[in-house]
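Retry 2 of 3 after timeout on previous attempt. Resubmitting structure tokens to design endpoint.
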């Protein structure tokens, strides 16, 4: 039995297969419409979510399966003090596969150790968000045509943004990938990403504060929101929240084929005037999230179509 905790749980070859499967699902949805007949997906979300939970549910429904679960800790027995380990043992009796989101780093891993069904980490605190990474990889691969030899700028809250940590981890395995890390001083990537992931693997990267100084050179700009819920005090959040606003004037400095990704939700960091720019692909990205989660469910359940 296989779980997904971290994008590195898949080899590059396995990721290639998964992305190819997602492409086939996009092209031939009818072929997969009954692939999961009789199977159940549980979504156990202890933290707010729109895209991740609903795209998982849409994915399972598109495959002919059904879904059950809870959307907040308050509406589950967590509110009565039940541990994640106990909850997953019970969910294992009800469902065939489970996606779990939790505010604590490592919660999904703990769940996977007690589970008798595949567990997917749908976000654990500020740590990892591997299925967003699969979504991001599929988006870049589909719209840019490659995952290698690209210059990727990450902008915003690089300290608490788990989607950033997961995507950096995944992209360093492709040749010729360079990073520009754009953040306020207080929101730089955690030191384990800088030293254990980037420096340890000799990956070229620079850290910058101003988006204007970086944007002209990028193939991908990955914008992120300031993660309010992970700040210790509201004052720091308020000081930082509008640090970056991507608008038409900044887009004018970017390459014609640069792509703007954002895991969403967007708060203020991308002005709505950018939405109509063909380089703004964050809503397409949300659509790719369904195909890739369909591919992931099939892969973890070992279902071949
Ligand atoms: C992200 C998350 O939950 O980390 N959202 C998502 O899953 N698409 C990004 C965020 O909340 O800022």
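Retry 2 succeeded. Sequence:
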């Amino acid at each position: 039995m296989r779980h997904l905790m971290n994008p590195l749980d898949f080899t590059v070859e396995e990721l290639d297969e998964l992305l190819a499967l997602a492409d086939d699902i996009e092209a031939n949805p009818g072929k997969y419409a009954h692939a999961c007949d009789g199977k159940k997906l549980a979504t156990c979300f202890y933290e707010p979510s729109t895209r991740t939970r609903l795209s998982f549910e849409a994915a399972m429904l598109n495959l002919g399966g059904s879904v059950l679960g809870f959307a907040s800790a308050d509406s589950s027995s967590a509110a009565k003090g039940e541990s994640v380990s106990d909850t997953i043992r019970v969910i294992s009796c009800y469902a065939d596969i489970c996606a779990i989101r939790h505010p604590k780093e490592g919660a999904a891993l703990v769940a996977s150790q007690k589970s008798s069904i595949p567990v997917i980490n749908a976000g654990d605190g500020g740590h990892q968000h591997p299925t967003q990474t699969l979504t991001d990889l599929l988006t870049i691969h589909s719209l840019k045509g490659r995952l290698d030899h690209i210059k990727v700028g990450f902008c915003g809250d690089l300290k608490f943004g788990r989607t950033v940590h997961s995507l950096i981890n995944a992209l360093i395995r492709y040749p010729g990938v360079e990073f520009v890390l754009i953040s306020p001083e207080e929101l730089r990537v955690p030191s384990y990403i800088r030293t254990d992931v980037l420096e340890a693997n000799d990956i070229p990267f620079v850290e910058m504060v101003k988006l204007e100084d970086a944007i002209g050179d990028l193939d991908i700009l990955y914008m992120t929101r300031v993660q309010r819920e992970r700040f210790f005090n509201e004052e720091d959040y308020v000081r930082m929240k509008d640090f970056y606003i991507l608008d038409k004037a900044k887009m004018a400095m970017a390459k014609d084929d640069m792509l703007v990704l954002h895991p969403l939700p967007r708060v203020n960091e991308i002005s709505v005037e950018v939405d109509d720019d063909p380089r703004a692909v964050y809503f397409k990205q949300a659509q790719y999230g369904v195909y890739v989660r369909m591919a992931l469910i099939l892969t973890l359940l070992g279902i071949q179509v």
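Attempt log closed. Residues 51-52, 123, 129, 132, 162-163, 224-225, 263-265 surround N-carbamoyl-L-aspartate (CB under 6 Å).
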